[in-house]
Amino acid sequence: MERILRMLNGRLRSKLIVVFSLIVALIVILLSYLSYRQSSLMNEENFIASNQKIMKLVNQNLDNYISKIDEFTLSPRKDSVFMDAIISNEYLAQFNIQNQIKNMFYSREDIEEITIYTPINHTQYRLSRSTVNLTQQSDYQTEQEAWYKEAAGSPKFRSMEPASQSQQFLVFHRILINIADKRPLAVISVTLNYRELNRIFGDLSDKSGEVLGLFNYENQLFYSNNDDVTDSQWKGLLARVDEQAGEAGYSEQSIERSLFLAQYNISGQNKWKLVKLTPIAELNKAAANARWINLVVGCGFLVFFIIVVIFVSNAITGRLKDFSRRIEQLGEGNFELDYEFKGRDEIAHLSRKFNQMVVRINDLIAERYEIKLNERNARLKALEAQINPHFLYNSLQAISTEAIIHEVDSIQQMVDALASSLRYCIKDGETVSVGHELEHIQNYLVLQKARFGERLQVAIDIPAEAMAILIPKMTLQILLENAIEHALEQMSEAIYIEIMADWDEQWLVLHVADDGPGMNAKRLEEVRAGMNENYLEVQEEIGLKNLYSRIKLMYGRDAHMTMNSQPGQGTDIQIRLPIRKEGQHVQSTDY
Question: What does the record say about its membrane topology (predicted)?
Fold first, then answer.
């Protein structure tokens, strides 16, 4: 991302390549996304339509299968010997019942177990693939079973329940009755395995991760190929199926943070609810593969387009490069340029305006040269004004000599300090070293101590390493003078002023702090606001305002002046400047 931003901030050629490449990439991604969405929707619609037909056919086959089992359990009614046997207690009758159950059991491979119960003697006959021989149990009470009550109340005298064993599908119960008085004569229970059901469900699941569920009209689970789906999850799905109240339908469902397409179909005869869950990710796999193919093709197209853009951008920016070289020559001082691009486009128009600008610059240089000549003449005339400073120095020197002759050392020191201060103030140069500024401060303090005596106490704590750092001339004097004017002159007690400096490789911080009366928060805000205004409303802050303006003009945004003060605790002024040392030139910076 950083590299792209650098290219956008770089040459026009790079911008064209980046912008057009991003546009093409966006188009490729958008087309791939739309193609993926369209493919997904079409694939989902086709999948749903196809599966609805298959599920309907599966349910029809399941109904047909149950109908065959229904007919199978009714077939013993056609055997008069068996019908006589179930209402007889003779030994031969038991033999006939056993023959009937064996014939029924071995006639179908999908039967796992078969039982016949005779209410007349409460006897149950059972034959299962898990046992070798047929078993017989007396005093068996079937009438209390829930499935028996359901079958007895059913118009067809039958019921179905899920098998209790994992390898078994369902148990089909049939009550054979006396047609005249509806009295139960026998109960036939057939337990079916998954042999026929697997054949019916053979074409139903063709995707990885699909889940099948088969339920009766009471939402009782008869079959599921995935035990990970819990009863509560099936219950929630079936509740939504019941809400739709249709023979078939579909919806998207979330199970364990995975999204599934849930389809269902309800059979017409036995009201079987067949539910199929297909992972959306698996459903969209083909569309996802097509999406990646589109992206690969799109990337190839993107590379081709970038190559085309490079050639086109070179053709567009070629003349701009020539124009840029002309500007560089102008920057080097070559004003003998008179080349104009042919054409009527923007570049040709820009070159004509550029030539006009070069002519104008030449005229301005000539005017500037004339101004410089006039300025030089003015400086020569200004030399005459230095006669008065020299006269003043000579006069001060004479007074100092007279003080020495008469052994008045205090006057001699004051006169020498005044002369040095005057010479320091009017000499050329915007910046001085910290060391030179401190020499001036010492002379300034000689004069101020003559005025205030022991009331003025000044301590200077500046390391020797900072002495060569350049600062604006008169910086420390203005800060010291501000402290004297607003602290010492406002009170009769002595004050303590401390001049300090902190510095590192980049910054110099000057502190001038006093223990004077200080100022309240309102007054402090007024002074701070006054320094940031273009003009002063308070006359007393002219010195600080002047200093603040100078350092801003010289150092720009790198320079800072802060002031902190509290009533009765004094004032602390700090100035932070970027470090320049002697031998380095300080240029003014726009602010």
Answer: Multi-pass membrane protein
**495-503 vs 456-461, strand pairing mode:** parallel
The answer on pLDDT for 366 being more than 50 is yes
The parent domain of residue 459 ranges over: 429-578
Neighbouring-strand partners of residue 461: 500
Which tokens sit at 303?
């590379």
Cβ distance 508 to 469 under 8 Å?
yes
Domain with residue 558: its CATH number is 3.30.565.10
Query: Running DSSP on this structure, what letter comes out for residue 454?
Result: G
Amino acid sitting at position 213: G
> How many distinct structural domains can be found in the chain?
4
Quick: pLDDT tens for 7-66.
556 566 677 777 777 887 888 788 777 777 777 777 778 888 888 899 999 999 999 999
Q: What is the pLDDT of residues 316-339, one digit of tens each?
A: 777 777 777 777 777 766 666 666
**Within a domain: residue 259?**
yes
- Would residue 392 count as lying in a domain? yes
By C-alpha distance, which of 562, 563, 559 is closest to 580? 559
- DSSP of 102-149, one letter per residue? HHHHHT-TTEEEEEEEETTTTEEEEEETTSSS-EEESS---TTSHHHH
The CA dihedral of 170, 171, 174, 175, to the nearest 10 degrees, is -140
